UniProtKB/TrEMBL annotation:
Protein's name in the database: Tripartite-type tricarboxylate transporter, receptor component TctC
SUPFAM superfamilies: Periplasmic binding protein-like II
Stretches for region Disordered: 39-61
Pfam families: TctC
Positions with biased composition (Low complexity): 43-58
Alphabetical list of InterPro entries matching this protein: BUG (IPR005064), Bug_dom1 (IPR042100)
Length: 359
């Protein structure tokens, strides 16, 4: 489920870079370099912002004066799309808050460790956590009692409708129809690579159920590992956020067969949807959510939400997000919480039983 975005200020800015792959070791190096490049870019931007005085832009007029450094906990390691988005958000929050905003990566437990650290922090609005669809997975598994109701939701600033189903150019499959025809002819032989226990595993279950896809899930790891495996033809198909693999789509190493969302992404107009083939859309778009301790006073939560509103109205922030094909779509507090819960109920819960049986 998508909402009309606040504004489309710029067309997508294609990320540049020409990659080459020479044998499996070279391909692995290329995939690692892509993620390293993203990590270096986002860390450099945040280090510059956090290591200096807050920018001179006037702080947000929220009726609340921010006086202490704010920490945004990113509950995954540096280098992926969640980390990148967190660092960009921190930079622009700092611009409007008048205090330093830093990013702290707390990886572990399928985002549980980072969420727990936020819950354990002083409830004064100086420790926030960011997350997305994956925040629901440990709760659904029963491995954690933490869910969105454990926090006060501050806002959802961004929707990520960029998850695509991708294959290697050497696969011989140029369309979703090609892949499905091959997989239905030989069920359980075409390998769909992902990370076990994550939402991309649930996506595989959904595709098999909704499209009779016949894909065989194999655990290859995180985004960098998935791209390496696809480049080396060690797996047949993956899902990936488009911007993370943009270089490979640009050079033709990867082919995006389908956008895994409910609505067309205007910034990825050339990527078809399942409905273009007469199939049900399998929606694994993501939201980018910001929350804090449930004991944080509403006055502070509302002030933080208003800061993020101003960030979302900043043309430079919008342009930065659109350069990654993301949609700036501001929602605050209860509206944001309801939106996230509805995405969980429609996108993950229908496949819960089969997901649990495959753990």
């Amino acid at each position: 489920m998508m909402r009309k975005k606040i504004s489309v200020l710029l067309a997508a800015l294609a990320m540049t870079g020409v990659l080459s792959a020479c044998g499996s070791s070279g391909q692995a190096t290329t995939a690692a370099a892509t993620e390293a490049k993203t990590e270096a870019k986002t860390e450099a931007a945040t280090t510059e912002a956090a290591g200096s005085e807050a920018e001179s832009a006037a702080p947000a007029d929220t009726g609340y004066k921010f006086e202490e450094t704010v920490t945004l906990i990113c509950p995954v390691k540096a280098g992926g799309d969640t980390d990148r988005n967190t660092r960009v958000l921190a930079e622009y929050m700092q611009k409007y808050m008048g205090v330093n905003v830093i990013v702290k990566n707390v990886d572990g437990g399928a985002t549980v460790m980072g969420m727990q650290e936020c819950l354990d922090a002083k409830p004064d609005g100086t420790t926030l956590v960011v997350n997305g669809t994956d925040m629901f997975v440990p709760y659904m598994q029963g491995s954690s009692t933490i869910n969105i109701d454990s926090f006060k939701t501050i806002a959802i600033p961004v929707i990520d409708n960029t998850t695509v189903l991708a294959v290697n150019k050497n696969s011989g499959w140029n369309t979703l129809e090609d892949l499905l025809k091959a997989s239905q002819a030989a069920p359980d032989t075409i390998e769909y690579g992902g990370k076990i226990g994550a939402s991309n595993q649930i996506c595989g279950i959904a595709m098999n159920k909704e499209w009779n896809a016949g894909l065989k899930f194999i655990d290859v790891g995180n985004n960098a590992a998935k791209m390496t495996a696809l480049l080396g033809e060690q797996t047949d198909v993956i899902n990936i956020s488009y911007a993370l693999a943009n270089d490979y789509f640009t050079t033709g190493e990867f082919i995006p067969l389908c956008l895994l969302g409910n609505e067309k992404n205007e910034l990825l107009a050339n990527v078809p949807m399942a409905s273009d083939y007469g199939l049900a859309n399998v929606d694994f778009s993501k939201f980018f959510w910001v929350g804090t301790s449930p004991e944080t006073p509403d006055e502070i939560v509302n002030a933080l939400a208003d800061v993020i509103r101003q960030v979302c109205e900043d043309p430079e922030f919008v342009a930065s997000m659109e350069s990654y094909y993301l949609t700036v779509d501001y929602m605050a507090t209860e509206e944001a919480k309801d939106f996230a819960n509805k995405m969980y109920e429609s996108g993950l819960l229908p496949y819960k039983d089969e997901f649990l049986s495959n753990q």
